[in-house]
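Dear Dr. H.,

I hope your travels went smoothly. While you were away I took the liberty of generating a structure for the chain from your last submission, since the lab meeting agenda had it listed for discussion. I wanted you to have the full record in hand beforehand rather than looking at slides cold. The sequence, exactly as received, is reproduced here:
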Amino acid sequence: MGFKFGSYESICEGIAMTCCPLLGDGLGLEPLCYSRNVEINSTIIFQPATCFIHIGALIMTAIMVYHIRSKYTAVGRKEIVLFFYLYALSEVLVIFLDSAIVPTYSVAYLWLTAVYIGLKTATFWCLLLNGFVGFQFAEDGTPKSLWSLRITCVIMWGIGFFVSAATFKGFAGMSPSMQTGLYIVELVFPLVCVAIYIVSQVILVLRTLDDRWPLGDIVFGTGFFAAGLVLMYGFGKQICKAVKHYIDGTFFGSLCMLLAVMMVYKYWDSITKEDLEFSVGSKQSVWEVKDPLLGSEPDMMMGSAQTHESSYRGISPSRLTPQQQQHSAPGLGGGKQGMGYPPNGQYGTPY
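The corresponding predicted structure, in token form, is as follows:
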């Protein structure tokens, strides 16, 4: 069946999306080619290779979040970290859905799928808003910026959840056979968010930054995202047959999405600089200033002590040689008897 806007039939024939078992009539929409399943402890695990990608995505997200949180003074740090939190949460949830650990026939599967689609909607919305943080319409890190982002993400999650549940359960004018609303929320809306984000970041780099290297991160991220969509939706069935059902399009789609998310981090890291003067880290940095015009520290301390003593106390006799002591001021050995330093006859033979 060919492509038709608002219909999942052609899409679900090529790949096994989480919502496909809940759409259509009867037992749902099934792909024409499945990836191989494995049995672990009397439990059949679907999409095992894709599950490894999801686990790897969680590990990489944890690393990226750690580095983001370590840049204490970077612009948009608290805003961008919310995007990675949402992405990680959706990856945790999709592991249970793709692997069918939660059976597709259970009631929990329906509601978890609705929650997952809502999380996808909120994640792409969060990415879209992060694209405008650099323009400083609202100062980053302030309650206005953070709470506007959080509240709108919750609203978008609610919209995605409601449309999904209404489509699966068949209310509010939607049903498993009338999939246009779900199609727009899950497939069209993310494309719009990514397109706006890319355009906004290109404008930001060209107008406000002297360095053009971040454009390379945008190009690579866009390429990974586009490749994931093409491999997943365009060639999922062909890939599955070519590799004899070991993997399918969802494997490459998930992998490319992970790489695209990593490029989002790489781009953000390349355009943000940390103010070392106000940063606070767990490790204390030791800064060594080397100036050829300045002497070494012991010499500087010696010179300072000499200057201080010569200015306020006169020259200390202990620093004079015997010849200097003999030709020094009368109070230092050249005057009255017994006023020299050291007193004659009390400390043995002079030098």
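Two observations you may find useful: The mean pLDDT is 82. The chain is about 60% helix and 0% strand.

With kind regards,
E. W.
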